[in-house]
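Input (RmlC-like cupin):
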Amino acid sequence: MLPKSRLYLLISLLPVYISLAVYFNLIALPPSADNTLSSLLKFAKSSTSSLRSLTRQASSTSSSTSVLTMGAKQIVPRPSQERGHADHDWLKTFHTFSFASYQDNKHNQFGPLRVINEDRVAPSTGFGTHSHREFEIFSYVVAGQLEHKDSMGNTEILKRGDLQLTSAGTGISHSEKAHGSKQVHFLQIWSLPSVSRLTPKYFTRHFTDAEKRDTWARIVAPVDAEGVLKDEREGKGPAPVQSALTLYATLLSDGKSLKQTIKGSKGYIHVVQTSGYNTKPATGAGIKVVGAPGVEVELKEGDGAYLHFENGGGELSVENIGDKTAEVLLFDLE
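Output:
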């Protein structure tokens, strides 16, 4: 069958064909048919106008459908108080995914993302020397100072705005402790590498609050992504990760909103618990995450959400709906 648009076109042009045939004497009409011919021409003009209107409507409908399917098709909240939680006195920690004594088959990993631990370590304490392999491990420092030492000879004091990434590869040992007289609050994030048995490497990057204020700062990106300095221990731009993962961070002011295109089929968003340790339902800064019309969720500090996209990604909107700055991490995942 012909598409409706083509069928309308053929019908609307029929009177024109008849008029042309009469003009060139290919067919004859009785004198009384002058009024009929005039009516046919008016009908042709009216039909063509209607066809243009129908075409515009079809185009509008197609465009609207495109917008609806471009964003996240599903946003699944991960409430703060439902995360794994442990209080060891020296360490107060939340686990987004199964970790240590917290095990939940519904929250083992998401794409290459395997661990998001929000840790608070008391002064003069921390994680003693221990080993890792076949993980990409990065630390995002929120407050305080974190002392890092490893078997590759790296010793460093990390502060707010610093991001440290260790590509564990075939194996490393390291320790992480609170430096100075204050508690250190940081997020420890692990991802699975795309290639196994890599040579271990260490990277640090620094991003000021100004660089993250009301914009998405790309702080981690795949080693082969544009603008990534994959062989520099320190440098500008995102830290190079051996995973199909891009991490953005923002300090979103109250009343402000941001959009971000997600290229992967999955994403994860997390609101950092900056206003204080809280094991109860989330409070503090609040954001609204919109994936598409009717697909949205509101989150507060400590809350997160799984993002599912159709057709290999789409646009996401994040709006600060509270009265405090929201520190937000956004993962783009394959």
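DSSP finds three helices and 22 strands in the chain.
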